[in-house]
Design goal:
Radius of gyration: 15 Å
CATH topology: Hypothetical protein af1432
Number of strands: 0
Number of helices: 10
Helix content: over 70%
Oligomer: single chain
Order of helices and strands: HHHHHHHHHH
Shape: globular
CATH class: Mainly Alpha
Strand content: under 5%
């Protein structure tokens, strides 16, 4: 798959979790990745990390979904096994390298990017809840996962900011 085709696919693929909870028109994978990247840029900077790297890791974290689609959470273990194959289809060594760093959590920037993936999902769940959709399950699950991540000392400088963002 050409990179431009992968980008187009990500712009057109709706996030499955939202659709499974009753939305007919939901946030796209690209919209989610964009929000995750901006959050990572801000939070990594506040934590004294390489903000640009964290943002790029967050930006590419869902690129395999251009091939596979957005898979439901319950299938995540199976999905991890085919992510690498999907990345080979996209034929970008650099994006593949960044994706692997994100998946393996090899750096503090990768950890921030993962946190921002969850944070963007949590924020979007609350937006949908304000519109009358029942996203309680997703909001509570991401809130718990974020709380667990925030126990890591690497997040100490930004804990307050993350909790503040979760109140939006």
């Amino acid at each position: 798959m050409r990179l431009v085709d992968a980008i187009q696919a990500l712009k057109n693929i709706s996030r499955t979790g939202w659709m499974q909870h009753g939305l007919r028109i939901a946030e796209s994978v690209a919209e989610h990745s964009f929000e995750s990247a901006l959050l990572a840029l801000e939070l990594a900077s506040a934590a004294g990390m390489d903000a640009e790297k964290a943002a790029v890791l967050a930006l590419v974290h869902d690129v395999p979904e251009a091939i596979m689609g957005d898979m439901p959470k319950w299938s995540s273990e199976r999905v991890r096994r085919i992510d690498e194959e999907a990345m080979r289809e996209i034929k970008s060594d650099k994006i593949g390298e960044l994706f692997r760093e994100f998946e393996e959590g090899r750096s503090n920037e990768a950890k921030i990017a993962r946190l921002c993936d969850l944070l963007a999902t949590n924020i979007q769940a609350r937006r949908y809840m304000k519109q009358g959709y029942d996203m309680t399950e997703i909001e509570e699950k991401t809130r718990r996962e974020i709380a667990e991540m925030l126990e890591d000392d690497v997040f100490r400088p930004i804990r307050g900011r993350v909790l503040e963002l979760m109140q939006v």
